[in-house]
Amino acid sequence: MVVKRLLYPERVRKLPPRFSWVDQRLVRDRHIERCDAPAAALYLMLITVGDAQGLSYYSDAALSRCLSMDPPRLVQARAELIRAGLIAYDRPLYQVLALDPPPVEARELTVEELRDRWRRLRESLGKPR
User: Fold this and answer.
1) Closest CA relative to residue 38, chosen from 83, 88, 99, 79
2) Residue 81 — pLDDT band, cuts 50, 70, 90?
3) How far is CA 95 from CA 6, 28, 45, in A?
């Protein structure tokens, strides 16, 4: 068993006065595994500069410069994060999305869907039609 100890007690991290954090579910639920390193770097940048709602509006030029990433690679990284469901983008606005699954919208079931559900329920209980 590894015993944890502070390597630099004088440099223990403290919550900064500005909002910025990384949700542990990014690793625990394996979201990060759907991204390559440039996409992960962009995600880290966006969660660092975003406000409490995950919004930021850094330009492509600024992001490319900060991340030492050429513009085509930035576009590719952004597309990868969008496909992974981690961010939304509507130029110039980025939104880092919650890692929770989106809520299922309620809708009325058709008569056929209700009959089918009733039939499956009765079959699972071993009751005849």
Assistant:
1) 79
2) very high
3) 35, 21, 12
Residue 82, CA distances (Å) to 23, 70, 75, 76 in order: 17, 19, 11, 10
Q: If you write DSSP's letter for every residue of 58-93 in order, what string do you get?
A: --HHHHHHHHT--HHHHHHHHHHHHHTTSEEEETTE
In 3-state terms, what secondary structure has residue 25?
Answer: helix
What are 23-41's pLDDT values in tens digits?
888 888 888 999 999 999 9
What residues does each domain of the chain span? 18-96
CATH class in words for 18-96: mainly alpha
Q: What are phi and psi of 99, to 5 degrees?
A: -80, -10
Instruction: Tell me which of 97 and 22 has the higher pLDDT.
Output: 97
